[in-house]
Amino acid sequence: MDEVVLELKDLHTHFFTDSGEIPAVDGVSLKLHKGEVVGIVGESGSGKSVTSLSIMHLIPKPPGKLVSGEILFKSEDISSASEKKMRKVRGNEIAMIFQEPMTSLDPLFTIGNQIIEGIRLHEKVSKKEAKARAIKMLELVGIPRADEVVDEFPHQLSGGMRQRVMIAMAMALNPEVLIADEPTTALDVTIQAQILDLMRSLNKEKETSILLITHDLGVVSEMCDRVVVMYSGQVVEEGTVREIIKDPQHPYTKGLIRSLPNLHKKEQSLYSIPGTVMRPKKDFVGCRFASRCEFAFDRCFQESPELYSLDNDRQSRCFLHDEGKGVEEFADTNIRS
Amino acid sequence: MTTEKKEQEKVDIHPNKEGYEPDEITAISPWKDAFRRLRKNRLSMTGFFIIVFFIIVGIFAPLLTSHGIDDQELVNRLQPPSSEHWFGTDDLGRDILTRIAYGARISLLVGFIAVTGALIFGTLLGIIAGYFGKWVDMVISRIFDILLAFPSILLAIAIVAILGPSLQNALVAIAIINIPIFGRLVRSKVLSLREEEFVMAAKAQGLKNGRIIFHHILPNSLAPIIVQATLGFGTAILEAAALGFLGLGAKQPTPEWGYMLSNARDFIQLAPWTLVFPGISIMLVVLGFNLIGDGLRDALDPKMKN
């Protein structure tokens, strides 16, 4: 694999609220190589968005705080970088696009102005040059009549167009890393596919590494090289897309994949994992998924599992691997008997 | 209307394929859009014309009348309206029309300066409180609360009492009592804007706090500020008139409308015109500003349109 562009080492981001300290991100480690697309998957409340905001230092503080851990960007730790340094990183080196294209653009400024603002912030170019580049970027992301759209206001564009504009804005400075926080959640399916295609081609063309945050396994299988599955603030499984989809190791991932509709099976109703995500608690002992896990046994409630390293750089946080059995075999012998 | 013309209109509304050029859609700025809506509002345009009328009267006061503001004709005291003195004369034989025309300058200027002062300080404090939060917000908001705890006119009286009665000090007092009104408005707007995704997106682009505040947050909170400023104009003029009436504002011979009312109080039965004309002027100006303010609110908030 190529060089590592972005690496998180044991990242802890906690929220200090009136009802106590909440470890929203509890020891997350992951690597993003150059030109790679890594997906972070998990339910709402699993800490995936907080992870991405932590990288950018955009956690609202208080109540949030990056408690410990390292964020290595091109082998430099930016976890405790100054605000001034972070402003240079944001947009220029690590760009971000958000979930809601409808509200991510300032309604009072033209599309062009907003792209130009970012370009001129990080590079010394004239307004004219910046505008020419903004138009070029808009063309690149497939916006028709870009030279006119550049002078239009956000309310004149549709959601899909606005998300393209957001991508153009993010890509205008050729960032090393693009963090996309559920970029297609608010869009309908056909537009979704177009936006994903666009991101894929930008990733190929410009070798931008993408950290894609989503709860949609369909999007993941289409886009990503590797996947990190998060649950209740922790990484529970990591592996390549193929491995995760075809052969999930952690019971939670298994549940997620089982709950996807399958074209080849006739099913009356879709499977859903019982219960809801446990709110991350401090000093919690036991597996966080245990209460919802169909394979749970005594040990799961008494000890906290570590990430087990499996073959091919795979990782999974489940005691079943200690029993020397895969989930499948264990399930066969213990549960369904 | 001829049939030909009707035909023409039809074509305009339903353009045929050749005539229809989707590429010709021009960018509509939200501000221009609001202005267009305002122009359609008859009531607020009426208000607008009332204010324009008083501005013109104020500017061209010397051309409108040959009398001076302090030309006393003691033989002509308390004369009813006549062809010589359209609005009559007051207790010192001064032409009331002249005094009202010159008074328009004072009242409008009072409103403008007091509102501008309150707007600048209130907006700044409100933005700082809303954007930075924490203890800064705590301190500023408590100051607002303290200011709002007093009835505004009482507070104005207290401030003028400390500074000494004069028109300038009345202005300062009116500006101060209006600061928390703007401050709280801006603070609440900033609090909600701060959570908007475009602010987060601007941060993610690497923009500085100052730039985000003045380029994204301030322009987006301008709509309610403008509305409040217009409505505040009316209140400020009323407050100045009230202070003048109480003898804490303008002094003789300044033709301030409130002060004119106060002087006329003694002749309310003998010469009602000394009271009626300044009173009507105050009412009209305040009404004008309120009409514009209401219209602006509707125009700037399209969601309320229906």
From TrEMBL, chain A:
Q: Which UniProt keywords apply?
A: ATP-binding, Cell membrane, Membrane, Nucleotide-binding, Transport
Subcellular localization(s) per the UniProt record:
Cell membrane
Q: Which GO terms describe its molecular function?
A: ATP binding; ATP hydrolysis activity
Q: Which Gene3D superfamilies match?
A: P-loop containing nucleotide triphosphate hydrolases (3.40.50.300)
In this chain the ABC transporter domain maps to 6-257
Q: Which SMART domains match?
A: AAA (SM00382)
One GO-annotated biological process of the protein: peptide transport
| Domain of life of the native organism | Bacteria
Classify the main location.
membrane
- Whether ATP-binding counts among this entry's keywords is yes
Example of a GO cellular component annotation carried by this entry: plasma membrane
How does this protein lie in the membrane? Answer: Peripheral membrane protein
Entry keyword annotation includes Transport: yes
Q: Cross-referenced NCBIfam families, in alphabetical order?
A: oligo_HPY (TIGR01727)
The family database entries (PANTHER family) matched by this protein are listed as: DIPEPTIDE TRANSPORT ATP-BINDING PROTEIN DPPD, OLIGOPEPTIDE TRANSPORT ATP-BINDING PROTEIN APPD
Q: Which family does it belong to?
A: Belongs to the ABC transporter superfamily.
User: What is the official name of this protein in its record?
Assistant: Peptide/nickel transport system ATP-binding protein
Organism for this UniProt entry: Piscibacillus halophilus
Q: What is the lineage of its organism?
A: Bacteria, Bacillati, Bacillota, Bacilli, Bacillales
UniProtKB/TrEMBL annotation, chain B:
Per the record, membrane topology reads:
Multi-pass membrane protein
* One BP term from GO: transmembrane transport
* Keyword terms: Cell membrane, Membrane, Transmembrane, Transmembrane helix, Transport
Q: Does the keyword Nucleotidyltransferase apply?
A: no
The chain positions of domain ABC transmembrane type-1 read: 104-293
Please give the superkingdom of this protein's source.
Bacteria
Q: Report the subcellular localization.
A: Cell membrane
Transmembrane annotation, as ranges: 43-64, 106-132, 144-164, 225-250, 270-293
Which Pfam family, giving just one, matches this sequence? OppC_N
The record's principal subcellular location, in a coarse class, is membrane
Q: Which GO terms describe its cellular component?
A: plasma membrane
InterPro entries in UniProt: BP-dependent_transpt_permease, MetI-like, MetI-like_sf, OppC_N
Of which family is this protein a member?
A: Belongs to the binding-protein-dependent transport system permease family.
The name of this protein is Peptide/nickel transport system permease protein
